[in-house]
Amino acid sequence: MARANRNKATTDRGTAGQIVSGAIGAAEALTVGVVQMTGRTLVETLHAVEEIGSELGSAVVRAARGSIKAAEDIGSDLVTVGKDVSRGVALPMRQVGTGITRLTWGRRDGKGEDGMRKMPAKAAGRRRRRPAA
Fold first, then answer.
1. Nearest CA to 25 among 37, 13, 14, 33?
2. Cα four-point dihedral sign 84, 89, 95, 98
3. Is the predicted pLDDT of residue 105 greater than 80, yes or no?
4. CA–CA gap between residue 18 and residue 25 (Å, rounded)
5. pLDDT computed for residue 3 by the predictor
């Protein structure tokens, strides 16, 4: 009977060892699976971030190019408006300037002297002469 108890204890130890060994193996397999899944998730996340970054970069480049194009269009419109305004101001100024030039040159002779007769500084007195008696 002692022998039967010893065999049973040995068998129990073997069975317990197998259970522990199986549990450790399962935990190890689970750990390896979790690590592999985490690694794959991390790699996929990095690929997604890379794609998102690429798309954001492309969007930023397109936005910058669009802004530059809009600034060019606005600038050319402003140049056109500026030219029109300057022409609109310059023509009347030329006309006024021509009129002023005519007025000033019309009063001068070719030498730059006044062509008009100067008025005396003081008007001469107009006295009536009496006839001699």
1. 33
2. negative
3. no
4. 10
5. 53
118 pLDDT band, cuts 50/70/90, is low
Counting Cα atoms < 13 Å in the Cβ hemisphere of 45 gives: 6
Q: Write a three-state SS string for the chain.
A: CHHHHHHHHHHHHHHHHHHHHHHHHHHHHHHHHHHHHHHHHHHHHHHHHHHHHHHHHHHHHHHHHHHHHHHHHHHHHHHHHHHHHHHHHHHHHHHHHHHHHHHHHHCECCCCCECCCCCCCCCCCCCCCCCCC
pLDDT one-digit tens code per residue, 45-70: 999 999 998 888 899 889 988 988 88
pLDDT digits (tens, 9 = 90+) for 73-100: 888 888 888 888 877 777 777 777 777 7
Token reading at 129: 């002469």
- Give the type of residue at 4: A
Residues 13 and 87: their CA atoms lie apart, in Å, by: 109
**Torsion-angle region of 23 (φ positive above 0: left; ψ -120 to 50: alpha; else: beta):** alpha
